[in-house]
């Protein structure tokens, strides 16, 4: 039987080679073999997407590479997600996540959603280009402990400020932590609009939000 490390390496390689079939196969075999799925996600699939992300940051890879790698990652996660119940991951509470109104980007947000799930949150991914009132409604309906909005353009980033104001008006500030991220978003912007937590990368969102929630 293959070891955990061998499964992890296969998952990582599938993402690095944009191999959807390979990612699906290793995920299904991992489920059948009853190996540690959280370890597989963290040190296999996520390690692969992080490496692709680093290549993108260094301008060695480009957006089509990110999208192809994400397709492989998502194929594997589609197999694994139904098996990631509370038996294997402790729940820190519900975390609503989306891309802000006017913005159709989703890859970064979806990777963050995976990292949060692995990190112990019950993630409610409500999609992309989500209207502010609908985000607030999702927070209320899910009794969320936190909400994250992603903005990949300066033109949509301003909607995060509008969202903070809506959260205040709804009496949710202090009850539901707000997280902001995305390419143009900075700590300075988060401070300016009153967001509780800023995360620069998907790899840090789970740990930062866990600390904030436990706070």
Quick summary:
The protein is an alpha/beta fold. It is built from 9 helices and 5 strands; from the N terminus they run ααααβαβαβαβαβα. The longest helix is centred in the N-terminal third of the chain and has 21 residues, at about 35-55.
Task: Explain this structure.
By secondary structure, the chain is an alpha/beta fold. The protein folds into two domains: 4-83, Methionine synthase domain (Methyltransferase, Methionine Synthase (B12-binding Domains), Chain A, domain 1, Orthogonal Bundle), CATH 1.10.1240; 94-214, Rossmann fold. The protein is 58% helix and 10% strand. It is built from nine helices and five strands, in the order H-H-H-H-E-H-E-H-E-H-E-H-E-H. The chain has helices at 4-16, 20-33, 37-57, 63-80, 107-118, 132-141, 154-169, 187-193, 202-214, and strands spanning 94-99, 122-125, 146-150, 177-181, 197-198. Helix 1 (4-16) packs antiparallel against helix 4, helix 2 runs parallel beside helix 4 and helix 3 runs antiparallel to helix 4 (63-80). The protein is globular and about 55 Å long.
Return the CATH class of the largest domain.
Alpha Beta
The rough form would be described as globular
Secondary-structure arrangement, i.e. CATH architecture of the largest domain = 3-Layer(aba) Sandwich
Separation, N- and C-terminal Cα atoms = 42 Å
Number of helices: 9
CATH superfamily heading of the largest domain: Cobalamin-binding domain
What is the quaternary state of this protein?
Answer: single chain
The run of helices and strands is HHHHEHEHEHEHEH
Order of neighbouring strands in the sheet with most strands? 2-1-3-4-5
User: In terms of per-residue confidence, which ranges show pLDDT below 50 for 5 or more consecutive residues?
Assistant: none
Question: What percentage of amino acids are in beta strands?
Answer: 5-15%
Largest sheet: 5 strands, parallel
Q: How confident overall, as mean pLDDT?
A: 90
Briefly note the CATH topology name of the largest domain: Rossmann fold
Radius of gyration: 17 Å
Helix content range of the residues, please?
A: 55-70%
